[in-house]
Amino acid sequence: MNLSNLLFGVYPYIALTTFFVGSLIRFDREQYTWKADSSQLFEKEQLRKGSLLFHIGVLALFMGHFAGLVTPHSWFLALGVSDMMHQVVAISAGAAFGSVCMIGGVILWKRRMYNSRVRANSRFMDIFILNWILVTLAVGLITIPFSIVHAQDNDASAMIALAEWIQATLTLNPNPAMLDNVSFIYKLHLFLGMTIFFLFPFSRLVHVWSVPLGYLFRPYQIVRTKFVKQR
User: What predicted TM-score, i.e. pTM, was given to this entire model?
Assistant: First the structure.
Protein backbone atom coordinates (compact mmCIF):
# COMPACT_ATOMS: atom_id res chain seq x y z
CA MET A 1 0.00 0.00 0.00
CA ASN A 2 1.47 3.35 -1.05
CA LEU A 3 1.07 6.66 0.79
CA SER A 4 -1.74 7.88 -1.49
CA ASN A 5 -3.84 4.79 -0.81
CA LEU A 6 -3.22 5.15 2.92
CA LEU A 7 -4.10 8.85 3.10
CA PHE A 8 -7.03 8.90 0.69
CA GLY A 9 -8.26 5.32 0.81
CA VAL A 10 -7.93 4.30 4.46
CA TYR A 11 -7.42 7.46 6.53
CA PRO A 12 -10.85 8.98 5.67
CA TYR A 13 -12.55 6.03 7.35
CA ILE A 14 -10.23 6.22 10.35
CA ALA A 15 -11.06 9.92 10.72
CA LEU A 16 -14.82 9.46 10.34
CA THR A 17 -14.94 6.44 12.66
CA THR A 18 -12.99 8.36 15.30
CA PHE A 19 -15.30 11.35 14.78
CA PHE A 20 -18.51 9.42 15.45
CA VAL A 21 -17.39 6.67 17.83
CA GLY A 22 -15.08 8.98 19.77
CA SER A 23 -17.89 11.51 20.22
CA LEU A 24 -20.24 8.81 21.52
CA ILE A 25 -17.65 7.47 23.96
CA ARG A 26 -16.84 10.94 25.27
CA PHE A 27 -20.52 11.76 25.73
CA ASP A 28 -21.05 8.48 27.56
CA ARG A 29 -18.01 8.65 29.82
CA GLU A 30 -17.07 12.32 30.19
CA GLN A 31 -20.24 14.38 30.07
CA TYR A 32 -18.78 17.03 32.37
CA THR A 33 -16.25 17.85 29.63
CA TRP A 34 -18.98 18.11 26.97
CA LYS A 35 -18.97 21.91 26.78
CA ALA A 36 -17.40 24.86 25.04
CA ASP A 37 -15.51 25.93 28.20
CA SER A 38 -16.30 29.57 27.54
CA SER A 39 -13.65 32.05 28.68
CA GLN A 40 -16.03 35.00 28.48
CA LEU A 41 -15.44 35.84 32.15
CA PHE A 42 -11.80 36.63 31.40
CA GLU A 43 -12.35 38.82 28.32
CA LYS A 44 -15.50 39.69 26.38
CA GLU A 45 -14.86 42.18 23.59
CA GLN A 46 -12.39 40.21 21.47
CA LEU A 47 -14.33 37.00 22.11
CA ARG A 48 -17.53 38.60 20.83
CA LYS A 49 -15.93 39.93 17.65
CA GLY A 50 -13.78 36.92 16.89
CA SER A 51 -16.39 34.31 17.73
CA LEU A 52 -19.05 35.95 15.56
CA LEU A 53 -16.82 36.18 12.48
CA PHE A 54 -15.33 32.74 13.04
CA HIS A 55 -18.66 30.95 13.43
CA ILE A 56 -20.26 32.72 10.46
CA GLY A 57 -17.30 31.71 8.32
CA VAL A 58 -17.16 28.12 9.56
CA LEU A 59 -20.88 27.50 9.05
CA ALA A 60 -20.84 28.98 5.55
CA LEU A 61 -17.70 27.06 4.57
CA PHE A 62 -19.05 23.78 5.91
CA MET A 63 -22.38 24.13 4.12
CA GLY A 64 -20.65 25.27 0.93
CA HIS A 65 -18.20 22.38 0.95
CA PHE A 66 -20.96 19.90 1.74
CA ALA A 67 -23.33 21.12 -0.97
CA GLY A 68 -20.62 21.63 -3.57
CA LEU A 69 -18.75 18.37 -3.09
CA VAL A 70 -21.39 15.87 -1.98
CA THR A 71 -24.03 16.82 -4.55
CA PRO A 72 -23.64 14.59 -7.65
CA HIS A 73 -22.20 16.29 -10.72
CA SER A 74 -25.22 15.30 -12.81
CA TRP A 75 -27.55 17.16 -10.45
CA PHE A 76 -25.76 20.46 -11.03
CA LEU A 77 -25.95 19.96 -14.79
CA ALA A 78 -29.65 19.09 -14.55
CA LEU A 79 -30.23 22.36 -12.67
CA GLY A 80 -28.45 24.30 -15.40
CA VAL A 81 -25.31 24.95 -13.34
CA SER A 82 -22.29 24.53 -15.60
CA ASP A 83 -18.91 23.40 -14.33
CA MET A 84 -17.48 26.89 -14.74
CA MET A 85 -20.42 28.51 -12.97
CA HIS A 86 -20.00 26.03 -10.13
CA GLN A 87 -16.28 26.77 -9.94
CA VAL A 88 -16.74 30.55 -9.96
CA VAL A 89 -19.32 30.36 -7.16
CA ALA A 90 -17.02 28.07 -5.16
CA ILE A 91 -14.07 30.44 -5.62
CA SER A 92 -16.06 33.55 -4.72
CA ALA A 93 -17.82 32.07 -1.69
CA GLY A 94 -14.67 30.31 -0.51
CA ALA A 95 -12.62 33.50 -0.70
CA ALA A 96 -15.26 35.62 1.04
CA PHE A 97 -16.23 33.31 3.88
CA GLY A 98 -12.71 31.88 4.20
CA SER A 99 -11.42 35.41 4.80
CA VAL A 100 -14.19 36.13 7.32
CA CYS A 101 -13.40 32.90 9.16
CA MET A 102 -9.66 33.60 9.10
CA ILE A 103 -10.09 37.11 10.51
CA GLY A 104 -12.27 35.78 13.32
CA GLY A 105 -9.88 32.90 13.95
CA VAL A 106 -6.86 35.19 14.17
CA ILE A 107 -8.70 37.40 16.68
CA LEU A 108 -9.47 34.33 18.79
CA TRP A 109 -5.90 33.03 18.42
CA LYS A 110 -4.39 36.36 19.49
CA ARG A 111 -6.77 36.52 22.45
CA ARG A 112 -5.95 32.98 23.57
CA MET A 113 -2.20 33.36 23.16
CA TYR A 114 -1.63 36.88 24.49
CA ASN A 115 -4.33 37.40 27.10
CA SER A 116 -2.66 36.08 30.24
CA ARG A 117 -5.88 35.03 31.97
CA VAL A 118 -7.27 33.25 28.91
CA ARG A 119 -3.91 31.58 28.23
CA ALA A 120 -3.63 30.37 31.82
CA ASN A 121 -7.01 28.65 31.52
CA SER A 122 -6.32 27.09 28.11
CA ARG A 123 -5.57 23.42 27.69
CA PHE A 124 -3.01 22.08 25.23
CA MET A 125 -5.76 20.82 22.91
CA ASP A 126 -7.49 24.23 22.92
CA ILE A 127 -4.41 25.82 21.41
CA PHE A 128 -3.53 22.88 19.18
CA ILE A 129 -6.96 22.56 17.54
CA LEU A 130 -7.20 26.32 16.95
CA ASN A 131 -3.78 26.33 15.30
CA TRP A 132 -4.75 23.31 13.19
CA ILE A 133 -7.98 24.98 12.02
CA LEU A 134 -6.13 28.18 11.11
CA VAL A 135 -3.52 26.25 9.11
CA THR A 136 -6.33 24.39 7.33
CA LEU A 137 -8.00 27.72 6.55
CA ALA A 138 -4.75 29.23 5.30
CA VAL A 139 -4.09 26.30 2.97
CA GLY A 140 -7.69 26.50 1.76
CA LEU A 141 -7.22 30.18 0.90
CA ILE A 142 -3.96 29.33 -0.88
CA THR A 143 -5.88 26.95 -3.16
CA ILE A 144 -7.96 29.84 -4.49
CA PRO A 145 -5.31 31.24 -6.90
CA PHE A 146 -4.86 27.71 -8.28
CA SER A 147 -8.62 27.45 -8.80
CA ILE A 148 -8.68 30.85 -10.51
CA VAL A 149 -6.03 29.67 -12.97
CA HIS A 150 -8.09 26.53 -13.63
CA ALA A 151 -11.19 28.66 -14.23
CA GLN A 152 -9.30 30.91 -16.65
CA ASP A 153 -8.27 27.79 -18.57
CA ASN A 154 -11.88 26.55 -18.51
CA ASP A 155 -10.67 23.52 -16.55
CA ALA A 156 -12.91 22.10 -13.82
CA SER A 157 -11.22 18.70 -13.67
CA ALA A 158 -9.73 19.21 -10.19
CA MET A 159 -13.06 20.27 -8.69
CA ILE A 160 -14.86 17.35 -10.31
CA ALA A 161 -12.17 14.88 -9.22
CA LEU A 162 -12.37 16.05 -5.60
CA ALA A 163 -16.17 15.83 -5.59
CA GLU A 164 -16.22 12.37 -7.16
CA TRP A 165 -13.56 11.14 -4.72
CA ILE A 166 -15.59 12.33 -1.72
CA GLN A 167 -18.80 10.83 -3.08
CA ALA A 168 -17.06 7.51 -3.78
CA THR A 169 -15.57 7.49 -0.28
CA LEU A 170 -18.91 8.22 1.40
CA THR A 171 -20.58 5.43 -0.57
CA LEU A 172 -17.87 2.99 0.58
CA ASN A 173 -16.25 2.77 -2.85
CA PRO A 174 -12.92 4.52 -2.17
CA ASN A 175 -10.74 5.24 -5.17
CA PRO A 176 -7.60 7.23 -4.31
CA ALA A 177 -6.54 7.09 -7.97
CA MET A 178 -9.16 9.77 -8.66
CA LEU A 179 -6.81 12.27 -7.02
CA ASP A 180 -3.68 11.30 -8.96
CA ASN A 181 -3.85 14.38 -11.20
CA VAL A 182 -4.96 16.80 -8.48
CA SER A 183 -2.39 19.36 -7.30
CA PHE A 184 -0.60 18.75 -3.99
CA ILE A 185 -2.09 21.88 -2.40
CA TYR A 186 -5.62 20.47 -2.70
CA LYS A 187 -4.53 17.14 -1.25
CA LEU A 188 -2.87 18.93 1.68
CA HIS A 189 -6.06 20.89 2.36
CA LEU A 190 -8.02 17.66 2.16
CA PHE A 191 -5.75 15.89 4.64
CA LEU A 192 -5.82 18.80 7.08
CA GLY A 193 -9.62 18.94 6.86
CA MET A 194 -10.01 15.20 7.48
CA THR A 195 -7.74 15.48 10.50
CA ILE A 196 -10.09 18.04 12.06
CA PHE A 197 -12.72 15.28 12.13
CA PHE A 198 -10.14 12.96 13.69
CA LEU A 199 -9.27 15.48 16.42
CA PHE A 200 -12.88 16.51 17.02
CA PRO A 201 -13.75 14.11 19.91
CA PHE A 202 -10.60 15.06 21.82
CA SER A 203 -11.30 18.81 21.78
CA ARG A 204 -13.91 21.31 22.88
CA LEU A 205 -15.38 21.09 19.36
CA VAL A 206 -17.75 18.41 20.71
CA HIS A 207 -20.03 21.23 21.87
CA VAL A 208 -21.16 21.44 18.23
CA TRP A 209 -23.28 18.32 18.82
CA SER A 210 -25.25 20.23 21.46
CA VAL A 211 -26.38 23.06 19.20
CA PRO A 212 -29.98 23.81 20.28
CA LEU A 213 -31.74 23.33 16.94
CA GLY A 214 -35.01 22.81 18.79
CA TYR A 215 -35.12 26.52 19.59
CA LEU A 216 -35.72 27.24 15.91
CA PHE A 217 -39.01 25.35 15.89
CA ARG A 218 -40.48 25.69 19.38
CA PRO A 219 -43.28 28.24 20.01
CA TYR A 220 -42.60 31.45 21.86
CA GLN A 221 -42.68 31.09 25.63
CA ILE A 222 -44.24 34.02 27.45
CA VAL A 223 -42.64 34.37 30.86
CA ARG A 224 -44.49 37.53 31.82
CA THR A 225 -47.10 39.34 29.79
CA LYS A 226 -47.08 43.12 29.66
CA PHE A 227 -50.86 43.21 29.75
CA VAL A 228 -52.63 43.23 33.10
CA LYS A 229 -55.70 41.05 33.20
CA GLN A 230 -58.83 42.73 34.49
CA ARG A 231 -60.59 40.88 37.27
Answer: 0.87
